[in-house]
Amino acid sequence: xxxxxxxxxxxxxxxxxxxxxxxxxxxxxxxxxxxxxxxxxxxxxxxxxxxxxxxxxxxxxxxxxxxxxxxxxxxxxxxxxxxxxxxxxxxxxxxxxxxxxxxxxxxxxxxxxxxxxxxxxxxxxxxxxxxxxxxxxxxxxxxxxxxxxxxxxxxxxxxxxxxxxxxxxxxxxxxxxxxxxxxxxxxxxxxxxxxxxxxxxxxxxxxxxxxxxxxxxxxxxxxxxxxxxxxxxxxxxxxxxxxxxxxxxxxxxxxxxxxxxxxxxxxxxxxxxxxxxxxxxxxxxxxxxxxxxxxxxxxxxxxxxxxxxxxxxxxxxxxxxxxxxxxxxxxxxxxxxxxxxxxxxxxxxxxxxxxxxxxxxxxxxxxxxxxxxxxxxxxxxxxxxxxxxxxxxxxxxxxxxxxxxxxxxxxxxxxxxxxxxxxxxxxxxxxxxxxxxxxxxxxxxxxxxxxxxxxxxxxxxxxxxxxxxxxxxxxxxxxxxxxxxxxxxxxxxxxxxxxxxxxxxxx
Length: 507
Fold this sequence. Notes:
This protein is mostly beta strands and 507 residues long. It has a single domain (2-506), classed as Methylamine Dehydrogenase, Chain H (7 Propeller). It contains four helices and 35 strands. Strands 1-2-3-7-6-5-35 form a seven-stranded antiparallel sheet, with no helix packed on it. Strands 4, 30, 31, 32, 33 and 34 form a six-stranded antiparallel sheet that branches. A hairpin with a 3-residue loop joins strand 16 (254-255) and strand 17. The radius of gyration is 22 Å and the shape is globular. Mean pLDDT is 95; it is low at 3-21.
């Protein structure tokens, strides 16, 4: 392990009065084998340039403000980092998962990052090359059988990260294996023993009160979906089929104290093309359907609720009020947008499907009446928003505040944050400076927090102006003041998908 000491973050950025030099100490781990060269691919360059370096960094430099002493825990972020030259056309969701972690304790911040040691990563390291094609590649590209619902992809475990009963879980949206890591050291703990043969989708949900984890998966084979529960001892205690009319592409779920909500949405693989092993998504003339099942319920206890056609990548929260389940998430107005005409043709479809301004995702509310079976819908904000978070202690119960990200038009990049007061309808916005791109920003409660929004949003920022990355904290009580603390990271990180905050007590 190689050690370095850095005594500054960015010599071109003038130090402010609040800048503190802490002489960050860096340990570099032995490098992985990589065959990826420089690229002009829009998602292999710029803020999406893959990061291959693994390090431990201690006593991170503070650029502005000071590291708060009133939070104690870790921020985890999953990113996609292609290691080898792609076999075909690259999609950012093909890249290998890497977990980045910043730890806060007693006013000091430390950082580390590790690739998720999946079976596929290990196989490609042994082969010294890519073995699997990607999401945009035609049948026959992969050199070995693939994994997950698609069946021909690499299980890169690059989508989501959460913490359940003291273990960090990295998961893949196409239903790969759930990979376990120590959330404090990022040491690999192998594959979750409770994972079923059908895999685990991204976005399992943890009930902070019971410490149960709820998950789902989907496939191209009947019954096409399953739902399960894992207890606080990492034992799968419930697993039931959720019969669907055919293969579907659910991405997220929601939970209340008593129920889980799954979905059957009308954007899914074209049936005729799927028979030729071509995985092309199209919008079907069907309603959206939401499955409400008691947490430990049987298949015959499922209630289905119909709603307006859409696709939903992410839900914020759900909770019960009287006879109703209220669920908030991001409604897409055009889930299968036309190809972009302002980019090279080889990227036109890719860029459209990654652009929130193409599929137009907006904060939305569904109300499911368990007595009447009726669904009522409501638009909560007409701005383009996504990647929402809440104070996780309010998962499954009524929350007042929500935090969304703002996207850069045309790109899968985050340029700001919006705080919503869902009771009053009021909102506050923080925009990052041009060329600076954030990440999904979970809420970190203060130690001994007094109320729901007593804490910070935590985000990583990649700065294309300086070629650096940092961590920022926004005081949720003084949201529009912007970052109250900026902390240097030891290297520039790649953009990615999801993040998670875990208090020390949950570790």
